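With this grant's support, we have settled on a layout for protein records. One resulting record is reproduced below.
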Amino acid sequence: MQKSKKRKVVEAVLLIFAALLVTVIGYLIYVFATFNRLDDHINIEITEPDRPAGKSLEINKTYKITTYNIGFGAYSPDFSFFMDGGKESVAKSEESVKELTTGAAELIKSMNADITLFQEVDTDSTRSRHVNQLEMLNETFPEYYGAYAVNYHSAFLFYPFLQPIGKSNSGILTLSSFAMTSSERRKLPIAESVKKILDLDRCFTVSRISAANGKELVIINLHTSAYGTDDKVRDGQISLLCEVLEEEYNKGNYVICGGDFNHDLLADENDKSDKASWAYPFPKSKLPKGFEFAFTGLDSVGINKMWNSGRNTDMPFVEGETYTIMLDGFIISDNVKMVTYDTYKTGYKYSDHEPVVMEFRLIGE
């Protein structure tokens, strides 16, 4: 009788173990089977404003452009993120996501920019409590043309176990008060190993606005990889970007590339000192001839006084203690003149990033 009871216990334990093993294997099959990358060269549908907008940009007139990673509406100053060593994996609440998204949108709207680039705009993600941020931004900017592209998407990721990050649907949005004649999604290289589950999909968009002299202003909205990357992936992403920059410049177009580069934009590319794992110096020497980061046009005082555009999220933000870095900005071709350039300081009120704002002119011949 005693042996029979023990046997039943062992059998029960084995059955439970087998059920768990089958569940785990089934889940892994689901995650990898549903992983897919969007194609390259996807034409993006452009939404039109509810009232007439500008048709073409004038030469030698000053315009304003902003870029802002809104952090899927989760990053209040007290928010920390588990993938950076923090605690949270999803936003505190639906109300919090709406509050932060509204705050970010209204801040940018108050700047009255001609062109705005947003990153980490979610449409239906677990982490952002299924709030449609794209819809909210479009409602805030009804007078702008819009081009939205999915940057990355994923199946339901059951990690961390107590509060899974779940499924993600996130993209980048380009808004313009001038008519965009076309917009295209370009696929960036990502990790091909198991790391792709963390890196997901990545892209940049190429949007076109006519200039009065018959040329085009090409606006590139970029959000490169942060997690699960290696040198090969980083080099591949930057190489493709540089290839497109050079191609458009050789056509005689004006080019501005803005967004979240996920690189240290101010560091010397030969600096090998210890930094956050994602804070690699941007290899500026790889930029094609005729291109530079727009802040290069500032003097050393102007550069040094700039507020860093990104914070590490291993802890809530504490000014003077939290690690901060310049992740966001603009690359411009030499036929675009930077007039003013700065980071807008909010104290990371609405995101783990801050907006970068630039005034510029298209240079005539």
The chain has a mean pLDDT of 89.
